[in-house]
Amino acid sequence: QSALTQPASVSGSPGQSITISCTGTSSDVGGYNYVSWYQHHPGKAPKLMIYEVSNRPSGVPDRFSGSKSGNTASLTISGLQAEDEADYYCSSYTSSSTLVFGGGTKLTVL
Amino acid sequence: QVRLQESGPGLVKPSETLSLTCTVSGGSISGYYCYWMRQPAGKGLEWIGRIYTSGSTDYNPSLKSRVTMSLDTSKNQFSLRLSSVTAEDTAVYFCARDDKDIGAAAVFWGQGSLVTVSS
């Protein structure tokens, strides 16, 4: 299975909004509403931010939102804060009953 | 709060078998999917596989021939074995568990365990 495609890096200033894309195929992202997004601060455990395309686990700020169109899912962070600076990974369920991650996106808050 | 902790040797010799155990506290592994992921230094997360309470497993096709996952519900633990390791298997290994009504996602994660493959 091939990794999902994410931009290597994105950046934004505090208060701004950014969007991270996650492109797959009809066998993963496009075929199932099981896209998740994780925030990872190096040296710490990854944290689930979005599940099933657009749902937020308890405790995740509503500044984080997810969506999907065709084979591409997106994570949008509005009102950027310094603590949002981290690596972000998407993942998707696949037609092989496996999961696949994206390559990761480094978010820099300027 | 559900907590997970990976344990196992931090150094494994090439061609040998990597073995890690994940101990879960604050919640059960019964009725949940348990996952293993890894992250080589400077690279992204890679999904290794998952095991359900019944013992059914799903593995990353690229690792399937070398991976075995098992669980012990009496100890609330699940384990990973990766055979014939090479330097490319050097990584931080994470265990995780899902949660009710959250599909195909790792909700609770361990802090990670660095495993180095070297002679």
Oligomer: heterodimer
Number of strands of chain B: 11
**Beta-strand content estimate of chain B:** over 45%
**Sequence stretches where pLDDT stays below 50 over 5 or more residues of chain B:** none
- Give the terminus-to-terminus CA distance of chain B: 39 Å
Straight-line distance between termini of chain A: 35 Å
What is the number of helical segments of chain B per DSSP (H or I, 4+ residues)? 0
- What helical percentage do the residues of chain A reach? under 10%
**How much helix, percentage-wise, in residues of chain B?**
under 10%
- Overall geometry of chain A comes to globular
Descriptive notes:
The complex is a heterodimer of chains A (110) and B (119). By secondary structure, chain A is an all-beta fold. Chain A has strands at 9-12, 18-23, 35-40, 47-50, 64-69, 72-77, 86-93, 99-101, 105-109. Chain A contains no helices and nine strands. In chain A, strands 1, 3, 4, 7, 8 and 9 form a six-stranded mixed β-sheet that branches. The N and C termini of chain A lie far apart (35 Å). Chain B is an all-beta fold and 119 residues long. Helix content of chain B is 0%, strand content 49%. In chain B, strands 2, 4, 5, 6, 9, 10 and 11 form a seven-stranded mixed β-sheet that branches. Chain B has a four-stranded antiparallel β-sheet with strand order 1-3-8-7, with no helix packed on it. In chain B, a hairpin with a 4-residue loop joins strand 7 (67-72) and strand 8 (77-82). Chain B is globular, with a radius of gyration of 13 Å. The mean pLDDT of chain B is 96. The chains are: A mainly beta (110), B mainly beta (119).
